[in-house]
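Ticket #4471: structure output looks truncated?

Reporter: J.K.
Steps to reproduce: submitted the chain below (405 residues) through the standard prediction queue, then opened the result file.
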Amino acid sequence: MTNIDLPDWCQSLFDEDARYFALVGGRGSGKSYSVAACLVLRAAAKPLRILCAREIQKSIKDSVKRLLDDTIERCGLSDFFVSTETEIRGRNGSLFLFAGVRTNIDSIKSMEGIDVCWVEESQTVSQASLDILIPTIRKPGSQIYFTWNPKNPTDPIDVMFCGEERPPKSIFLRVNYDLNPWFPDVLRAELEYDQRRDPDKYTHIWLGGYVANSEARVFRNWRVEDFEAPADAVHRFGADFGFAVDPTVLVRCHIIGRTVYVDHEAFMIGCEIVNTPELFLTIPEAEKWPIVADSARPETISHLRNHGFPRIMSAVKGQNSVTEGIEWLKSYDIVVHPRCQHTIDELTSYSYKVDPLTGRILPVLDDKNNHVIDALRYACEAVRRAPMRKPFDAMPLPVASPFAR
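Returned output as attached by the reporter:
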């Protein structure tokens, strides 16, 4: 077994006398990484039956299994654990199981002999799910780990652990990026950008604070859900280019009925023009489909046309184009794939301005937290303007005139 480094605060995760471990904080803290390492090491030391749960799990891809597989390899325990498509088994009899509480209610209720349960993304777990899950983990000495990035103080997990009184035998840890000695530079650039431009977003995303100005939020018509794009999906790409330290963004989506599905994003702060093609190629088939891009950077569009993206075109801007684009997006349901974390952040934070003197919400969009949203507007521009002009990807191919000789 390879020695694995963990932050100092992780020592309390091995306390066998505790019933609950509650780890709350912002992005980049290493909470999930640390709990995964703790459970792998504990399962290697003695036989444990471990349930990894979340509110909704439609497939194993929704679970923390990939994180555990990577952790097992990092710990040098690949010969000790056998990972199948749906579970992980140890040579000593340890077993990792994966389930969604709401999506696997009968399976959860029938589980016996669970030693440890890990509930990831606990901020999404309903009170009904907690009422089902907690009594199920009833083996003497059993333990439950909760990890989450907080959203609202009224979320059941926050009421349970962040109120005046916590359940007995609880270990509560508030963990943020400053306690992660291996906080990566790529995240530090994003953190510093948010810290300069939007203190509320910085507090929520990076310090684990609650969402501010929730009444002023622009988008309430969206949800996070794992999905696969249909084979016949018409992919729509939108790009927003960064200036100086602003992010360059590319998003991919498709539309079915009255729902916009966002399944891929590329995001980089301080991206140079010469590096933009490489960034865009991180999204599948980006070079094959039309891309509608911010018209304010014609030199970047020209560079991309000459370096593998011949179908990129400028967005059509005009008076009220931003407001009309936002209202159009608000008129649809929006489903975001969990891997599109920056899209999730902006849909959460994008808001109207608030009058600092009266606290009233103004009918004016706040010009921040909107790079991904701008890219999404551009991606859907052809559909929004369909009554005025045909979408690029719906135009008929030119055919030879029957009179041409």
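Triage note (M.O.): checked the attachment and the full token line is present. The domain at 11-179 is CATH 3.40.50.300 (Rossmann fold).
Status: closed, working as intended.
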